[in-house]
Design brief:
Number of domains: 3
Helix content: 55-70%
Shape: elongated
Order of helices and strands: HEEEEEEEHHHHHHH
Number of helices: 8
Distance between the termini: 179 Å
Strand order of the largest sheet: 1-4-3-2-6-5-7
Strand content: 5-15%
Radius of gyration: 67 Å
Structural class: alpha/beta
Number of strands: 7
């Protein structure tokens, strides 16, 4: 069967259309077909895991897309814990990076899709990294991407402090366990029994309260207790009355003390006046006593003359018995006057008080 030329050309145009469509898909699609050219600049990023990283994952620098992931695999297929290697290829061959360049990304969270890999370039004055060089990478969890690292660090420090506090409280809790361990009073009181603790003390207290309740439940004890309460109430009432009476007595005593104070003040002024009068009389008496002393001295002189038999008086007292009696009498009178004179002087000096 022969085909017409029209059919042939239709087939040719269809093939050409499919070829153009494939070229457009390769040029503008998600594949990196043209990026596999020999002069493409590549870097290998070493992560501890590759959560959310796939072929075609976007690579950015400063928020601008500069390349894509070309391959993801294990660093050592025989040691899975050695980490993963992510090969990235850059869109422009003129992109170059230097030492201390590193990469970071986040694990995909709820509704985030596949987060891009961010390249953090090293200092421009460092040595340039050759194509295919390895750089370190860090992948953060979805929680770390939502919660700032400072808050996470605060939680870590709080957790550490809680752990330290728990470790410090462990001996206390052990001691508390020993204190609360069931130990009956009978076991504690037994010879060689364990020492008492809070449990045994509470048991003893409970037994004491039960006994106290039984005692209070006795009708006789209850009636006696009621009578004691009534007596106490009566004593309280009597004490209140006594306090009131004591208060009135204190008021009377205060008034009496005020009157006594006034009486003492009046008596003191009277004593001062009497003391002044006595002092004046004493001065007068001293003068009179001095005159009496002089008179006695003169009388003594006369008596001495009379003793010698001189004058009329001497002849009168010629009788020895009368003479001796008169001499003794006058001497005693002189001694009495002298003692009274000394007594008055001592009273003036305040050495003798006169009671009134």
């Amino acid at each position: 069967m022969k085909q017409s030329p029209q059919t042939f050309w239709v087939g040719v145009f269809v093939l050409v259309g499919f070829g153009a469509l494939g070229a457009l898909i390769i040029l503008f699609g998600q594949t990196a077909f043209f990026s596999r050219q020999a002069d493409a600049y590549t870097l290998n990023i070493k992560f501890d895991r590759a959560t959310g990283i796939r072929d075609g994952t976007i690579v950015t620098v400063g928020g601008i897309q500069v390349g894509r992931v070309r391959d993801v695999g294990f660093v050592d297929p025989e040691q899975f814990d050695a980490g993963v290697n992510v090969e990235i290829v850059f869109d422009q061959p003129q992109y170059r990076f230097h030492q201390h360049t590193r990469a970071q990304t986040n694990a995909p969270g709820l509704g985030e899709g596949r987060p891009p890999i961010t390249i953090l370039p090293g200092p421009s004055d460092g040595a340039e990294l050759a194509s295919g060089a390895s750089i370190p990478g860090v992948i953060s969890s979805a929680v770390e991407s939502l919660i700032p690292k400072e808050i996470v660090n605060n939680f870590d420090r709080a957790r550490q402090r809680i752990e330290d506090a728990a470790a410090a409280l462990t001996p206390v809790l052990d001691d508390l366990h020993v204190i609360l361990q069931p130990r009956h009073a009978v076991e504690v009181d037994a010879v060689g029994g364990p020492p008492g603790n809070l449990f045994s003390a509470i048991e003893r207290l409970d037994a004491g309260l039960k006994h106290f309740n039984e005692v209070l439940g006795d009708p006789g004890v209850r009636s006696q207790l009621r009578a004691s309460i009534d007596n106490f109430h009566a004593m309280t009432e009597e004490g209140r009355v006594m306090v009131t009476e004591m208060k009135l007595a204190a008021d009377d005593a205060r008034a009496t003390a005020d009157g006594a104070k006034k009486l003492i003040e009046t008596t003191s002024s009277a004593v001062e006046r009497i003391d002044g009068q006595v002092d004046r009389v004493a001065r007068l008496m001293v003068g009179d006593l001095e005159i009496a002393g002089q008179a006695l001295t003169r009388l003594n002189t006369i008596l001495e003359k009379a003793e010698r038999g001189e004058g009329t008086l001497g002849r009168i007292i010629a009788d020895n018995r009368l003479y001796e009696s008169m001499v003794l009498t006058f001497r005693r009178l002189a001694e009495t006057t002298e003692e009274f004179r000394k007594l008055v002087k001592e009273w003036q000096k305040g050495e003798i008080r006169v009671a009134l």
